[in-house]
């Protein structure tokens, strides 16, 4: 099996390793935690550029990078933003090269799955995965924490999920560190494939098992107590098979302890519903409990698009009529989407035909609508633009800029449309 190599940006801390056990941890002493050091930046041909995770306290950040693609190095920034801890290596692989990583965050905890591969290898069976969890100037590591999926972190940062295997799941908790919790009640992998485990906000797990039958799949929700892998069935629902055969596999999503969105992983089954809990009882519904309002237009602009991981939050945007912009946000830790806001978009005599969105600077988020004063033959070709911008994902300001043929200029810290500019610091200005 081959795949496109993805550039790596990874991180680290002081490593005390037990090489045979494949585990390690990192702790800063008093001297290093005084933030007296400069940030070490990596990149170029041999290293991988830094990634930065904003933490809860003031200007605090975690920098994750690699000087040579063998070592994972982290630094922590002071909450007042004035200095960094000394660079510390939390993982070293002398033989393999770091090729990819996935970072997730919640409540001050950063979970990283780092992938290493032998030089020149195009076979992902040769890959080695390392799980890294960092919190409060301490990082813990574990080699091969399971297969598939991505790390998950509860919004309060108390629990992180790193992966699963046939025997159980690797969970990190603030009290216990990284541990394998053995499965109990798991359906196994010999038959229809169950869903990937989903970590709920309270630290419990959700798994949906599947039992194929003639033209149907029986989907059963299994849940655990927080911090365990002891699964118990709580509800089930049939899903129609549209045609041919299906392994009935699903994917799961939630922001809440009380509902799970179930989606088909292939088009052969009609699965798009929610398991919901009322008290101790779980039932099913097709009414979205998350509060997301979808624009689904048969013709014209613009169906809802959801942009995830916007400063670890989510933004949904679309248009019900091509003239107004509907926006909603889901902030990390909230169980539902915000109430939808309808913002002005197209000016008089105009209709908008396309939407794009961008992160701008450290705090800015901008939605840019391409608009047209006539019957557009090309949805991407406009003679006007509408801009909606925010620095907190709660309050928005808008501007309509007519008579512009040139495409917007999107910089790291500004958006420019004709003579109108928006920056997180100054808002809209015109020249």
Key words describing this protein structure:
35 strands; disordered N terminus; five-stranded antiparallel beta sheet; 431 residues; mainly beta
The strands making up the biggest β-sheet line up spatially as 1-2-10-9-8-7
Number of helices: 0
Extract low-pLDDT stretches.
Answer: 1-23, 27-32
How much of the sequence lies in strands comes to over 45%
Briefly note the structural class of the backbone.
mainly beta
- What's the overall geometry? globular
Distance between the termini: 54 Å
Domain count: the total is: 3
**What share of the residues lie within helices?**
under 10%
Largest sheet: 6 strands, antiparallel
Number of strands: 35
Mean pLDDT: 89
Rg from Cα: 24 Å
Model description:
The chain is an all-beta fold and 431 residues long. It folds into three domains: 1-180, no CATH class; 183-290, no CATH class; 305-430. It is built from no helices and 35 strands. Strands 1-2-10-9-8-7 form a six-stranded antiparallel beta sheet, with no helix packed on it. The chain has a five-stranded antiparallel beta sheet with strand order 15-16-17-18-21, with no helix packed on it. The chain has a four-stranded antiparallel beta sheet with strand order 3-4-5-6, with no helix packed on it. Strand 13 and strand 14 (177-182) form a beta hairpin. Residues 1-23 and 27-32 have low confidence and may be disordered.
Topology:
Blueprint: E1 16-18, E2 23-27, E3 48-54, E4 61-66, E5 71-76, E6 88-92, E7 97-106, E8 109-117, E9 128-135, E10 138-143, E11 152-153, E12 159-164, E13 168-173, E14 177-182, E15 198-199, E16 205-213, E17 216-223, E18 232-241, E19 250-253, E20 259-264, E21 269-270, E22 272-278, E23 281-285, E24 305-310, E25 313-318, E26 324-330, E27 341-344, E28 351-360, E29 364-372, E30 384-390, E31 397-402, E32 409-410, E33 415-417, E34 420-423, E35 427-430
Antiparallel strand pairs: 1-2, 2-10, 3-4, 4-5, 5-6, 7-8, 8-9, 9-10, 11-12, 12-13, 13-14, 15-16, 16-17, 17-18, 18-21, 19-20, 20-22, 22-23, 24-25, 25-26, 26-27, 28-29, 29-30, 30-31, 32-33, 33-34, 34-35
């Amino acid at each position: 099996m081959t795949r496109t190599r993805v550039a790596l940006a990874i991180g680290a801390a002081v490593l005390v390793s037990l090489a045979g056990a494949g585990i390690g941890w990192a702790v800063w002493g008093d001297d290093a935690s005084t933030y007296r050091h400069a940030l070490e930046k990596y990149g170029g041909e041999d290293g991988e550029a830094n990634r930065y995770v904003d933490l809860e306290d003031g200007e605090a950040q975690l920098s994750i990078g690699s000087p040579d693609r063998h070592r994972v190095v982290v630094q922590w920034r002071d909450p007042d933003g004035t200095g960094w801890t000394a660079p510390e290596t939390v993982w070293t692989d002398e033989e393999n090269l770091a090729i990819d990583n996935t970072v997730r965050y919640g409540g001050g905890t950063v979970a990283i799955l780092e992938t290493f591969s032998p030089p020149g290898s195009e076979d992902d069976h040769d890959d080695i995965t390392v799980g890294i969890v960092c919190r409060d100037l301490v990082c813990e590591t574990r080699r091969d924490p399971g297969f598939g999926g991505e790390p998950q972190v509860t919004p309060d940062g108390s629990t992180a999920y790193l992966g699963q295997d046939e025997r159980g799941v690797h969970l990190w908790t603030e009290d216990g560190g990284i541990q394998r919790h053995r499965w109990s009640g798991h359906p196994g992998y010999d038959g229809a494939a169950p869903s990937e485990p989903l970590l709920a906000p309270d630290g419990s797990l959700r798994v949906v098992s599947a039992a194929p039958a003639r033209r149907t799949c029986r989907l059963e929700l299994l849940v655990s107590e927080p911090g365990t892998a002891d699964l118990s069935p709580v509800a089930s629902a049939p899903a129609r098979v549209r045609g041919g055969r299906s392994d009935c596999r699903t994917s799961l999503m939630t922001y809440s302890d009380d509902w799970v969105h179930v989606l088909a992983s292939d088009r052969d089954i009609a699965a798009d519903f929610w398991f919901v809990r009322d008290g101790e009882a779980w039932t099913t519904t097709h009414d979205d409990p998350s509060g997301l309002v979808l624009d689904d237009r048969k013709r014209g602009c613009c169906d809802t698009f959801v942009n995830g991981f916007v400063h670890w939050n989510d933004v949904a945007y679309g248009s019900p009529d091509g003239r107004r912009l509907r926006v909603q946000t889901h902030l990390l830790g909230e169980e539902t989407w915000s109430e939808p806001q309808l913002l002005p978009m197209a000016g008089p005599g105009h209709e908008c035909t396309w939407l794009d969105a961008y992160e701008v600077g450290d705090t800015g988020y901008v939605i840019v609508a391409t608009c047209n004063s006539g019957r557009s033959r090309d949805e991407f070709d406009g003679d006007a633009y509408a801009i909606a911008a925010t620095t907190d994902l709660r309050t928005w300001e808008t501007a309509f800029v007519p008579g512009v043929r040139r495409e917007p200029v999107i910089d790291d810290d500004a958006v420019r449309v004709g003579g109108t500019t928006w920056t997180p610091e100054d808002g809209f200005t015109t020249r």
